[in-house]
Design brief:
Number of helices: 6
Largest sheet: 2 strands, antiparallel
Structural class: mainly alpha
Shape: rod-shaped
Distance between the termini: 157 Å
Radius of gyration: 61 Å
Strand content: under 5%
Number of strands: 2
Strand order of the largest sheet: 1-2
Length: about 270
């Protein structure tokens, strides 16, 4: 009973340990990812572009290494072709020799003439048997080499296509990086213009403040003039009230005669 309980405790503890380690690994991976993303955001765009240009320039040495391997493979394929052709030529010579020995044996003579030499029929029979076996082996060798040649030619063609693809992709990436550089320059120019706009608003604020100061000076000047006028009116001498006699005299002086009759006469004359 206690053994079962102890075993269960060990199993549970092991499971918790594994779960804890799994979570720790997950936490660590998530934290690393966030730190990497935050670090990437802190790197200037211009620096990233330079890094991409450097990476792109490294394709040239890689392509040169690949070209060296391709060149070596081209030479190996050509050598293999020449070797197959050479074996085929030798095989054709053996076939002609086999045909000649076969024809000589058909005569059923004890001695036969072969390549301007007189040889016993038994010797020719042995030579023919060995030559046929050798030709069969060479045919198998040629077949194996041809399969090898076909495989190496496919591999070589694939390598050539890969190099062409890398070259084309490199040119496309160069265009994309150049376009990205132009976009960054335009962005920086726009950011510079936005700074100038802030300066313009500051200048506008200064101009507005100057105008407000001018208006304040005008108001103070006008206010001073109004105070002066009010002071003059308050301190002006009192005007005496005219008597009846003074008013009458002024009226007669205006009419040009001192009597009512004279006034009427004057109007008649007119």
């Amino acid at each position: 009973m206690f053994r079962k309980i102890g075993f269960a405790i060990i199993v549970v503890a092991g499971g918790l340990f594994l779960l804890s380690n799994t979570r720790i690994a997950s936490y660590g991976g998530t934290a690393f990812k966030k730190v990497r993303q935050a670090t990437q955001k802190q790197v200037p765009v211009e620096f990233e572009i330079e890094r991409l240009q450097h990476e792109l320039s490294q394709l040239i040495p890689d392509m040169k290494k690949s070209l060296t391997g391709v060149a070596e493979e081209i030479v190996a394929v050509e050598n293999l072709k020449e070797d197959i052709d050479r074996v085929r030529v030798a095989q054709n010579d053996r076939k002609r020799n086999i045909f000649a020995m076969k024809e000589q044996l058909k005569n059923n003579t004890e001695r036969v003439t072969l390549n301007n030499r007189t040889v016993s029929a038994n010797r020719v029979r042995e030579m023919l048997d060995n030559e046929v076996a050798s030709c069969k082996n060479i045919e198998k060798e040629i077949e194996t080499k041809e399969k090898l040649l076909e495989a190496r030619e496919r591999s070589l063609d694939l390598a050539r296509r890969q190099i062409s693809s890398v070259r084309a992709q490199k040119q496309e990436l160069e265009l994309q990086i150049a376009q990205l550089q132009a976009d960054v320059k335009n962005l920086r120019l726009a950011q510079t213009k936005s700074v100038v706009q802030i300066d313009d608003s500051r200048l506008a604020h200064i101009k507005t403040s100057l105008q407000e100061l001018r208006n304040r000076l005008k108001v103070e000047k006008t206010e001073g003039e109004l105070h002066g006028q009010l002071y003059n009116e308050i301190n002006a001498p009192d005007t005496k009230i005219k008597t009846n006699e003074q008013v009458i005299k002024e009226a007669e002086a205006y009419l040009g005669d001192s009597t009512e009759e004279g006034k009427v006469v004057t109007e008649k004359r007119q």
